[in-house]
Amino acid sequence: MSTQPQPQSQSQSEPRSRSGAEAAAQVTPAAAQLTPPAAVRGPHRAGAELHLDGLTAGYGGAPVLRGVDVRVPAGSIVALLGANGAGKTTLLRTVSGLMPAASGRIVFDGEDLAGVSVENRARAGLAQVPEGRSVVAELTVDENLRLGGLQRFRGRRLTTAVDGIYDLFEPLARRRRAAGHQLSGGERQMLALGRAIIAEPRVLLLDEPSLGLAPRVVAQIMAVLRTLRDERGLTVLLAEQNVTSALAIADHGVVLNLGEVVADRPARDLRTDSALRHAYLGF
Ligand SMILES: Nc1ncnc2c1ncn2[C@@H]1O[C@H](COP(=O)(O)OP(=O)(O)OP(=O)(O)O)[C@@H](O)[C@H]1O
């Protein structure tokens, strides 16, 4: 597979426009109070489609994922939901190549990823932000972002890319000279996300970005993800226990239980159908 996709113009990314009513239905009350992030600076690589077909994976021979099928269309957000231990992190790690698949297929932009290294998956545009807000503690915000951006940019283009992240995450712009270890939990999560986004991934794998954060910060992060989808056509697979926040921005919801898909529905159905929510999400 090609490991160096070429940048595409924004018009090629075919960003989706939404009706006002649809957009309004997708914001949480907290998100509604926030100023939307600035428009995404372009041009950018467009999102790619991701399919998982019959994916099985586990630890030491004990299966955790059992024949999981998930489809994440290009330019959409799919919420991956489920209780503790359902297999969300295992699924994301298997897709990014950190864990081997025992069987099944992972298809990224039409290409089977079997045998493709973690590094080449990242180069092709598959980015994972693990749970725990991984940033380099000793480096400043600016240095962390530049490090993330070096994968694709040098010189002035790198500076423009860093400025693009500050447009999206205003709190980071104010803290650009602070070291990673001096940041609040919310700022660290924004930086972890910024480091992944700056390299213009085509599919973003996010593991519980809301964990331990205040509702306002969660709303801010979800608003950025929505902007990236709508304006850049980014594809996002979002593992979350914060079901309400995830479904507020997702197009589709997939519920895992003990490593199996038990529901695969439009997010609108999971948001609005209380019987469905009660059956699969327990509230
Ligand atoms: N390194 C490991 N070795 C062995 N078993 C593991 C390992 N990591 C996770 N597991 C097991 O795999 C199962 C799925 O865990 P996983 O972390 O994927 O779930 P999760 O849905 O992400 O949960 P959470 O929301 O708590 O992070 C659990 O039973 C867990 O105990």
TrEMBL record:
UniProt keywords (A-Z) are:
Amino-acid transport, ATP-binding, Nucleotide-binding, Transport
- Report residue spans for region: Disordered: 1-42
| Domain (ABC transporter) ranges | 50-283
- A matching Pfam family: ABC_tran
Bias (Low complexity): 1-14, 21-40
Superkingdom: Bacteria
What molecular function terms (GO) are annotated for this protein?
ATP binding
The entry assigns this protein to a family as follows:
Belongs to the ABC transporter superfamily.
For this entry, the protein name equals ABC transporter ATP-binding protein
Organism this protein belongs to:
Agromyces salentinus
